[in-house]
């Protein structure tokens, strides 16, 4: 029998599909992932899919109709509540669609849409206002890492994103450390690299808020996470899950990632 695995915080494995899969493909993938995982596995590890906006209604109908034990979220939101913002989607709309999570400050939004720290902060506020849990992304590019400034870079992004966010909101946030050089490149950070920054993020949260609050917040790693490397990264004390890109649009691979506690017990 498998050994019982326990965690300080319930791990979160979230699949960021990015700009992939139409609503029919979304139904098929979500169904496949959900039926590949047992109730026990989904009790231990929280599993989320983060599809494009156009898929959310279909995913909601499926998850509600079949009472699936997985949750879902969006990849971005507007800092505004409603109005003349062509092309934008509000937190209220996402909440109405049953979203649990919303990714904020992903490096692809920072890079391709010029999102700065002030906008990221406004989006974090909008998410909390509408009852959504932000998955706040921070991470350094290669030049910053080469100058060994990665910890300072990430904690500075964290400080800016959390400006004027009170403790009773921040306690529910999820932070994702995603080194830009590891995203979609196959160059995964080592488990020690992930631990260094995830640990520094938790320490910074403890300083800004309190050790109790910091200990309750989940800090994920993202960047070329696959079934073959997830268990080693998850074995680190300050890594509480993974934000998975490319591997999340392959149902078998993603479900195998979500079963990482069993890889660990199998290896021990
Ligand atoms: O950006 C990511 C998740 O948000 C990571 O993407 P990859 O897993 O494809 O490297």
TrEMBL record:
Pathway: Carbohydrate degradation; glycolysis; D-glyceraldehyde 3-phosphate from glycerone phosphate: step 1/1; Carbohydrate biosynthesis; gluconeogenesis. It comes from the Bacteria. Substrate binds at residues 16-18, 184, 224, 245-246. It catalyses: D-glyceraldehyde 3-phosphate = dihydroxyacetone phosphate. It is found in: Cytoplasm. The active site is at 106 (electrophile), 178 (proton acceptor). InterPro entries: Aldolase_TIM, TIM_sf, TrioseP_Isoase_bac/euk, Triosephosphate_isomerase, Triosephosphate_isomerase_AS. One of its GO terms (molecular function) is triose-phosphate isomerase activity. Pfam families: TIM. Keywords: Cytoplasm, Gluconeogenesis, Glycolysis, Isomerase. Homodimer. PANTHER family: TRIOSEPHOSPHATE ISOMERASE. Involved in the gluconeogenesis. Catalyzes stereospecifically the conversion of dihydroxyacetone phosphate (DHAP) to D-glyceraldehyde-3-phosphate (G3P). Belongs to the triosephosphate isomerase family. This is Triosephosphate isomerase. It comes from Cryptosporangium arvum DSM 44712.
């Amino acid at each position: 029998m498998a050994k019982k695995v326990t965690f300080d915080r319930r791990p979160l494995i979230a699949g960021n599909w990015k700009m992939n899969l139409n609503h029919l493909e979304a139904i098929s993938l979500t169904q496949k992932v959900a039926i590949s995982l047992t109730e026990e596995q989904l009790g231990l590890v929280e599993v989320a899919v983060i599809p494009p906006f156009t898929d959310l209604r279909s995913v909601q109908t499926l998850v509600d109709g079949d009472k699936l034990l997985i949750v879902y979220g969006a990849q971005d939101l507007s800092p505004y509540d409603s109005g003349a913002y062509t092309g934008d989607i509000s937190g209220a709309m996402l909440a109405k669609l049953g979203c649990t999570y919303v990714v904020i400050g992903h490096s692809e939004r920072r890079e391709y849409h010029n999102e700065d720290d002030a906008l990221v902060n406004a989006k974090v506020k909008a998410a909390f206002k509408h009852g959504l849990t932000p998955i706040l992304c921070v991470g350094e590019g290669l030049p910053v890492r080469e100058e060994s400034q990665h910890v300072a870079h990430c904690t500075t992004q964290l400080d800016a994103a959390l400006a004027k966010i009170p403790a009773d909101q921040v306690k529910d946030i999820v932070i994702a450390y995603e080194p830009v050089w590891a995203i979609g490149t196959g160059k995964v950070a080592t488990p020690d690299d992930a631990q260094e920054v995830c640990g520094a993020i938790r320490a910074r949260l403890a300083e800004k808020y309190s050790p109790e609050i910091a200990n309750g917040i989940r800090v994920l790693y993202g960047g070329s996470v696959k079934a073959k490397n997830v268990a080693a990264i998850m074995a680190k004390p300050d890594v509480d899950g993974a934000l998975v890109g490319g591997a999340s649009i392959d149902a078998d691979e993603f479900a195998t990632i979500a079963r990482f506690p069993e890889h660990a017990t199998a290896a021990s």
